[in-house]
Amino acid sequence: YQTKLEFALKLGYSEEQVQLVLNKLGTDALINDILGELVKLGNKTDTDQTVTNANTTVMREASSIESQRSESPLQEDVTEDGDNLRPIVIDGSNVAMSHGNKEVFSCRGIKLAVDWFLERGHKDVTVFVPAWRKEQSRPDALITDQEILRKLEKEKILVFTPSRRVQGRRVVCYDDRFIVKLAFESDGIIVSNDNYRDLANEKPEWKKFIDERLLMYSFVNDKFMPPDDPLGRHGPSLDNFLRKKPIVPEHKKQPCPYGKKCTYGHKCKYYHPERGNQPQRSVADELRAMSR
């Protein structure tokens, strides 16, 4: 046994491997047989070690990728998406009358709009409604579900704009000015189907803000539906429109229906994948160039 052990150790095999082979072949086995088994055992051990090392490497790489994902800016944006969403300022009168088909001031419409933004994760939602809407419903000013206004006020979502009576006449502050001013100062979004043309003409910065931050909407029964393309089909998506920093990639422009046969050249407003980033002259421009 000692002779066979020393022989195997000189060849680089361990005592455990020799014992395994001798247990299999017996102590009377010949050196050549032992050597053959040691070679087989050595190859098997190397293979197992390679597989083990490969598995360890894969696990380490997966762990590294996972840690990179957790530290990536995109992951932070998704995790803290609530902080990336813009403040919302809702024109309560416009929304309520729209939900009531311009006949009834429907407070339920305001609640539907507020819930839509809260469910998306917006933390800063403000609704402006004239204070006289607290008064009891009259035939010439019908109001439904009026208790919703009080509830939203307690939740610090709804704000009543001031109004008072002077010698029996109601004096009302202009609620649209509150809406535009707060949205402008908070760098938020105005939710309304009103264009605020009078206020846009007052200040150039207000006009630009209204043009870029007005979110229109529709009601389909009790479903509040803003458009997927608030600024047109070539503008940002609704997801990016509502965010301070876009994290959802924008879709490319609509492919040109004429393809390679298009004669508009670089003036074509559609997307041409075959051109890449190279501008292409129109047919008229080509003819002018040739005549020169």
Tell me what you see in this structure.
- The chain starts with a helix and ends with a helix.
- It is built from 13 helices and eleven strands.
- It is an alpha/beta fold.
- The longest helix has 41 residues.
- About 4% of the residues have low confidence.
- It folds into three domains: 42 residues; 162 residues, Rossmann fold (3-Layer(aba) Sandwich); 32 residues, no CATH class.
- The protein is elongated.
- β10 and β11 form a beta hairpin.
- The strands form four sheets. A five-stranded parallel sheet has the order 5-3-1-8-9, sandwiched between helices.
- Helix content is 48%, strand content 13%.
- Belongs to the ZC3H12 family.
- One of its GO terms (molecular function) is zinc ion binding.
- Its cofactor is Mg(2+).
- It comes from Charadrius vociferus.
- Keywords: Endonuclease, Hydrolase, Magnesium, Metal-binding, Nuclease, Zinc, Zinc-finger.
* Structural shape: elongated
- Rounded mean pLDDT is 79
Q: Kindly report the CATH topology of the largest domain.
A: Rossmann fold
Mind summarizing the main beta sheet?
A: 5 strands, parallel
Strand fraction: 5-15%
Q: Roughly how many Å apart are the termini?
A: 101 Å
Per DSSP E runs of 2 or more residues, the count of β-strands stands at: 11
Radius of gyration: 37 Å
The succession of helices and strands, N to C, reads: HHHHHEHEHEEHEEEHEHHEEEHH
